Amino acid sequence: MTTQTTGTSTLTLGKSINRGLHHALADDDKVLVMGEDVGKLGGVFRVTDGLQQEFGPERVLDSPLAESGIVGTAVGLAYRGFRPVVEIQFDGFVYPAFDQIVSQVAKLRYRTQGRVSMPLTIRIPFGGGIGSPEHHSESPEAYFAHTAGLRVVSPSNPQDAHVMIRQAIACDDPVVYFEPKRRYHEKGEVDEGVDLGALPLGAAQVVVAGSDVTLVTYGPLVKTALDVAAAAADEGVSVEVIDLRSLSPIDFAPVEASVRKTGRVVITHEAGQFAGLGAEIAASLTERCFYHLEQPPVRITGFDIPYPPSKLEQHHLPDLDRILDGVDRVMERTNSLSGGAAC
Amino acid sequence: MSREDVLTAADTASSEPIQLVAPDGTRRRHAEFDAMLADVNDDVVADLYVDMVAVRRIDTEATHLQRQGELALWPPLLGQEAAQVGSARALREDDFVFTSYRENGVAYCRGVDLEDMLTVWRGNASSGWDPYGINMATPQIIIGAQTLHATGYAMGVKLDGGDQAAVAYFGDGAITQGDVNEALGFAASYQAPVVFFCQNNHWAISEPVDLQSRVPIAQRAEGFGIPHLRIDGNDILAALAATRIALERARSGGGPTFIEAVTYRMGPHTTADDPTRYRDQAELDEWKEKDPLTRIEEYLHTRGMAVDGFREAAQHRADDVAEKLRRGITTMADPEWAAVFENVYAEDHSWLNRQREQYGRYQNLFGSDAGGEA
Ligand SMILES: Cc1ncc(C[n+]2csc(CCOP(=O)(O)OP(=O)(O)O)c2C)c(N)n1
Ligand SMILES: [Mg+2]
Known about the structure:
Chain A: Residues 11-186 form the Transketolase-like pyrimidine-binding domain. Chain A has helices spanning 13-27, 51-55, 67-79, 98-105, 108-111, 141-145, 158-170, 221-234, 252-262, 277-289, 313-316, 320-330, and strands at 8-12, 31-35, 60-62, 83-87, 121-126, 151-153, 175-180, 187-191, 205-208, 213-217, 239-243, 246-248, 265-272, 298-302. Chain A is globular, with a radius of gyration of 20 Å.
């Protein structure tokens, strides 16, 4: 089965991943898609819509209801030479599989001195803002980024989502692929014929150029960061937005180059702050370009709490105003913490 | 009758679930089960019927409230009223129940304040009631996790020398989860006084039950050495009798029991689900014929009870619960922002204190100090 590589079309982020999975299934018959409800239903977010119909129930498998089972059997399939792409239905349901991911998927190459590859892709819709009950809005990326042996990525737009899922599947390392679920319906131009080698899976990208402040983020908050840049521009502040795309490893070169230019950096993510990605970025930038920093790095993040009930999530999630307040802090303009003991 | 008799006669998982009231209302005899129902006269059955009508009304009312935007989500239990009410009415007040998200019929029987049932689905808080107030944990969303909690609770009862039981409610999908299998192992090892009540409603979202189990689910218990019963889950008398058998065993030191209640999820998985994508109308129609409510109406009719009488009583109660639900929703206050930081820890936490303080100052930017002492 071959897939026509059409030109550019307008796709939602969810559909762009679907098309990426389609290409991967068509191009390599060792690729399998597995997970709860991924078959007939097409997944609860419809990301695998139509794939079982096209590739059959032997390649697009509805799994029994057990995440450890899904990932653990994917490990066995990988031993046998397959490339499983597993779906975890929601962020908060990955923990039953945590043991298999951390103790097996991540460590097998090292344990076997490179003799065994685990080219798994673990897709996880993540993040909040969709008004859901507990366990449906979490941002657990730091657990995985902290685990040696895993690559962790998160696309922010349809084109990246499409290319990155194909790159993740092709990658011989296990990749945890975090999908920004509240952006599934965002539309964008997607070129399915793009050279997959052009921009590596691990590359960060400057998505808006600016000169006063560097704003670093990924996944669902990239869209918010673009709004921040526009709003700040109205106030005469030039914000450079960097979409990390890869969370492990982090491509620090463009981030460092930007901070050397601006001297001011705000980092934002939905996940809690303590020992989160922002901490790693702030520490690394401090090591790499301390003398170029005009102000301490500022982190605007979710609070260090269990994800709150949906009526409170607007407080927890960094939004335009909270990130602008962070921009004001690094710009030494009036902000929520000025005029008092900030520490 | 001795417990051994019950064990040998009733605890065999046959593929035909045990049924006391057929869909057409015919009363079937079953010595072991009937022996558990000596006190259940026609008035008691009529009361159970009223409960089921009330529970169905809660379900339809909540579904409406979701459609009207008052609730973010609702997991309907339509079709599972008999399994839930029958089993819950077998419990003592001091037994302790651990359920999934779908057991609102159980919560009703435990005496939950109706508006507390909606809190979590409106998104006002992550749970609605005090578990110790009605001896029922709040709804568990992580599939199967509560089966271990019930087992541990039951281990505690045994350590304390109590005669209470713990009951775990879960679905057919949950049977695959590691947690459930671990719970069965622990319960058997410790002979914990726990009842595993599995509602096989045939679907786990879009996945049919045979994806989870190639044998009747009740049979799974056998390998763990746990006695099991397979019942018609749309038959409230079977659910009541089976749960009483299990509870009696638990209280008398006989350890765990596994009950599979064979029922059907007549609604969508939740209000966000579209079951037409994965299941046939014919299957639904077939199960409509086995409705748990109509068969009891038929049964009571054959018993010579005035159908109009108990229907009217049921209608009254249903109207009453519906009104309470609506009133509860309209008077429910939105949570204040400071609630975000509450109850993360029992004791002072310096990091979180700082976060709360800073967010309070941020709120002040907007001239709002609602909810915050910060
Ligand atoms: C650990 C975990 N994985 C996945 C889910 C998503 N999910 C919610 S309900 C459900 C199906 C549950 O089916 P079943 O156990 O039969 O209970 P039912 O919904 O039929 O009452 C799934 C997969 C979850 N809540 N928790
Ligand atoms: Mg089910």
